[in-house]
Amino acid sequence: MILPAGYAIGVLIAVFSTVLLIRSYREHRTPLLLWCSLCFAGLAINNLLLFIDLFVAPSASLQLWRNVVALLALSSLLLGLIWEDA
Q1: Which helix (H) or strand (E) holds 14?
Q2: Could you give the C-alpha distances from 13 to 17, 49, 58, 84, in angstroms and in order?
Q3: Could you read off the pLDDT of 72-81 as tens digits, one per residue?
């Protein structure tokens, strides 16, 4: 049995992590914090789409949108890591 509360907690944790990263970026202005916050924002959106896909609208498949958002989120972190190393 799939419990919606677990997925909802995952969404809230991802949003909370995003907020903390953005606050830290605004305080320190470190570019890597910006890239990490963009990545976590995308992962929070991905978790939200997963929750919607499983519990709100199970008849519609959002797998393509979830994969696109996850790819963009992780690509932003990869870009930030490459940019910082260069």
Answers
A1: helix 4-28
A2: 6, 15, 23, 26
A3: 999 999 999 9
